[in-house]
């Protein structure tokens, strides 16, 4: 479980997050929505300890974030960033194996059979087993995205934090990824926090949502209660049409064209 209270972040002399509070619960997926510049990525990077905060508090499973050493943070939280910059080439298997670093002891730790089993299971679950020996730099954007997700799963974290995980994926892969994350919630009882630009994917798959505008929380709570035309028009500044998805009965939205 991740709990943030009255979190404020200044960067470059500008207030990016203003007294943001939220809870991300175990076994549930929290979707973070908001327009560009609303503070979504800053919030995620602050929760992971990448950015400092000037006020408030963050607790990971009851422990203050500031008391957790880097390896302990990595064992508790895995992060899939919006952009993963690759400056070196390795086989896909070795890229996924980097996720085991937090569980290894010593400077020159060697992977054991348990590590190998976990790595291969993560690759199987993300559909990249057949890419094990391929060059990382030879992959498409969508294929790399699945490699980074496998690396995150290989960490065996309690919490999974994802910044636009459907970026670079085609429509079928987007749905497959979100359905896979839903299954992970049930099987591993993870805490999942997910920044999404696609409102409809959030409505279909997120248990809870947090709506941000100009660094402040507009509203948060159970997805089908929070996602309304009025709330979305407030944070995105444009008109929406609402209808109901026929299979799950969840709300769906489309932008209304401006004549």
From TrEMBL:
Residues 2-239 form the ABC transporter domain. SUPFAM superfamilies: P-loop containing nucleoside triphosphate hydrolases. PANTHER family: HEMIN IMPORT ATP-BINDING PROTEIN HMUV. It comes from Shouchella clausii. CDD domains: ABC_Iron-Siderophores_B12_Hemin (cd03214). GO terms for molecular function: ATP binding; ATP hydrolysis activity. InterPro entries: AAA+_ATPase, ABC_transporter-like_ATP-bd, ABC_transporter-like_CS, P-loop_NTPase. This is ABC transporter domain-containing protein. SMART domains: AAA. It comes from the Bacteria. Keywords: ATP-binding, Nucleotide-binding, Translocase, Transport. It holds the Pfam family ABC_tran.
């Amino acid at each position: 479980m991740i709990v943030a209270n009255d979190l404020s972040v200044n960067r470059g002399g500008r207030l990016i997050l203003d007294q943001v509070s939220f809870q991300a619960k175990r076994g549930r997926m929290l979707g973070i929505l908001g327009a560009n510049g609303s503070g979504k990525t800053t919030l995620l990077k602050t929760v992971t300890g990448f950015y400092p905060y000037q006020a408030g508090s963050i607790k990971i499973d009851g422990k203050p974030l500031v008391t957790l050493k880097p390896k302990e943070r990595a064992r508790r939280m895995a992060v899939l960033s919006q952009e993963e910059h690759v400056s070196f080439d390795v086989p896909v298997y070795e890229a996924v194996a980097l996720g085991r670093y937090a569980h290894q002891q010593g400077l020159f730790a060697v992977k054991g059979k348990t590590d190998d089993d976990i790595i291969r299971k993560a690759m199987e679950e993300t559909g990249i087993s057949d890419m094990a020996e391929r060059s990382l730099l030879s992959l498409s954007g969508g294929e790399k995205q699945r490699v980074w997700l496998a690396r995150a799963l290989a960490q065996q974290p309690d919490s999974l934090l994802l910044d636009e995980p459907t970026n670079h994926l085609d429509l079928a892969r987007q749905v497959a990824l979100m359905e896979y994350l839903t299954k992970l919630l049930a099987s591993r009882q993870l805490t999942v926090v997910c920044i999404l630009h696609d409102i409809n994917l959030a409505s279909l798959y997120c248990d809870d949502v947090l709506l941000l505008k100009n660094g402040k929380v507009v509203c948060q709570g159970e997805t089908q209660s929070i996602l309304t035309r009025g709330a979305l028009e407030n944070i995105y500044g444009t008109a929406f049409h609402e209808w109901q998805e026929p299979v799950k009965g969840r709300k769906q939205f489309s932008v209304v064209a401006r004549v």
